[in-house]
DNA sequence: CAAAAAATGTGATCTATATCAATTTTTTGG
DNA sequence: CCAAAAAATTGATATAGATCACATTTTTTG
């Protein structure tokens, strides 16, 4: 892996991220990397198609992806953005080894590290420290998602916009209004009438 | 603990729950129980007050609790119900060791097992199997919450009602319309006009 | 058991946002 | 660089659900 993804800086950043939650020796980190496979995608390409079996979780080294659900009436609803140093997949389909309900697409050229379900389980079984990492990271994800749910329950689109900007400063410049509206849960016409 | 909570059946149910995600010998299960402290509350009592430091996660042996957020205008929004064999706390405050934004109250007389933050961390450090359990359980909770978020994004209150009933059959009889409306995100007047 | 409190139901508005439609601006690919 | 497609804006309605008001029923409690 370290040979395949020949990006010293990206690997250092990932290690630094893991070490927010656990500590790893050089050997342990080398071992962690062996479970991953690299992947590159161009803008507009799909990482996951609705209906696919979802076999991988993905760490974003570079780029911007979006996880989108299209409802019965053809309306789009965005579950998640992922920029540099985020994980993204269809979690329901990945954890339960079923088929995706989301389309995950690239809004920019993207570089990823892929972690298969079986490799993730093996890594967690073999390395208690990594099981600890994923537990802690999972708790953080849960809390972040709960804040978004609460903002859906209590705020209007402006409040949800502020939450998104607090979480991902600078993301605004990288998104179209259409995509932003789909994330905030309003039509693009309504978003267009807002003055933030 | 096993002596304090002298409810053989409840303990057997909890063990069965853990063993959905991991396997435990008799000795290991005894050890797990030593990390917990029992608690009983009456209907209307508070498990967590908004503004409290949240030091415990709670496993519900018996009863019904609700986690409620009151917004600036005094409107209530229900994040979570917990019935028998559910975990409940203010996760953000618990995981990040800060103060609660939710009030967690009992809608029925309730029996709990409390797991402090430090005991949870110790148990996970000492017993890889329990770290595994909490990782897996955390993933499940994330996915359940994501389904609710998606239903907030795509469905009306009727769709969200159906999701709740699918997750907790029989809960309907135990809830007032006011509480149900606060969970579904509509006023009680609107709920009253719905015919399900 | 009786009074008070809480919950529930229903009618009459009001309002934020969706919808539909047409135009202008920006982006993209050959 | 230009033509076509996509995105964004703006106006005119329509509508689901909120709000306010009040009557009725049920539950709680001293």
> Compute the gyration radius of chain A: what is it?
17 Å
Strand order of the largest sheet of chain A: 1-8-3-6
Number of strands of chain A: 8
| Tally of helical runs of chain A | 8
The CATH homologous superfamily of the domain at 8-123 in chain A is named: Jelly Rolls
Largest sheet of chain A: 4 strands, antiparallel
Shape of chain A: globular
Derived structural class of chain A: alpha+beta
* H-E string of chain A: HHEEEEEEHEEHHHHH
The CATH topology of the domain at 8-123 in chain A: Jelly Rolls
Level-1 CATH class name of the domain at 8-123 in chain A: Mainly Beta
Question: Which oligomeric state applies?
Answer: homodimer
Intertermini distance of chain A: 44 Å
Description:
- The structure is a homodimer of 196-residue chains.
- The first copy, chain A, has 196 residues and is an alpha+beta fold.
- Chain A has a domain at 8-123: Jelly Rolls (Sandwich), CATH 2.60.120.10.
- Helix content of chain A is 44%, strand content 21%.
- Chain A contains eight helices and eight strands; from the N terminus they run ααββββββαββααααα.
- In chain A, the strands form two sheets. In chain A, strands 1-8-3-6 form a four-stranded antiparallel beta sheet. A four-stranded antiparallel beta sheet of chain A has the order 2-7-4-5.
- The longest helix of chain A is centred in the C-terminal third of the chain and has 27 residues, at 128-154.
- The N and C termini of chain A lie far apart (44 Å).
- The relative contact order of chain A is 0.15.
- The model of chain A has no long low-confidence stretch (mean pLDDT 93).
- Chain A binds chain B through residues 69, 71, 75, 77, 79, 91-92, 95-96, 124-125, 128, 131-132, 134-135, 138-143, 145-150, 152-154, 185, and chain B through 69, 71, 75, 77, 79, 91-92, 95-96, 124-125, 128, 131-132, 134-135, 138-143, 145-150, 152-154, 185.
- Chain A binds a DNA duplex (30 and 30 nucleotides) through helix 8.
């Amino acid at each position: 892996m370290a040979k395949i993804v020949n990006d010293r800086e990206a690997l250092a950043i990932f290690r630094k991220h893991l070490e927010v939650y656990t500590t790893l020796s050089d050997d342990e980190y080398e071992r962690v990397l062996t479970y991953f496979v690299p992947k590159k995608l161009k803008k507009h390409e799909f990482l996951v198609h609705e209906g696919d079996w979802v076999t991988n979780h993905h760490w974003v080294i570079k780029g911007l992806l979006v996880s989108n659900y299209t409802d019965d009436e053809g309306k789009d609803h965005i579950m998640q953005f992922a920029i540099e140093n985020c994980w993204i997949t269809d979690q329901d389909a990945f954890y339960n080894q079923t088929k995706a309900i989301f389309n995950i697409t690239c809004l920019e050229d993207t570089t990823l590290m892929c972690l298969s379900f079986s490799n993730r389980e093996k890594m967690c079984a073999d390395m208690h420290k990594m099981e600890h990492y994923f537990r802690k990271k999972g708790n953080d994800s849960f809390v972040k998602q709960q804040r978004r749910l609460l903002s859906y329950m209590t705020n209007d689109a402006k409040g949800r916009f502020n939450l998104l900007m607090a979480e991902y400063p600078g993301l605004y410049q990288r998104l179209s209004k259409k995509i932003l509206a789909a994330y905030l849960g309003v039509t693009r016409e309504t978003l267009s009438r807002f003055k933030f």
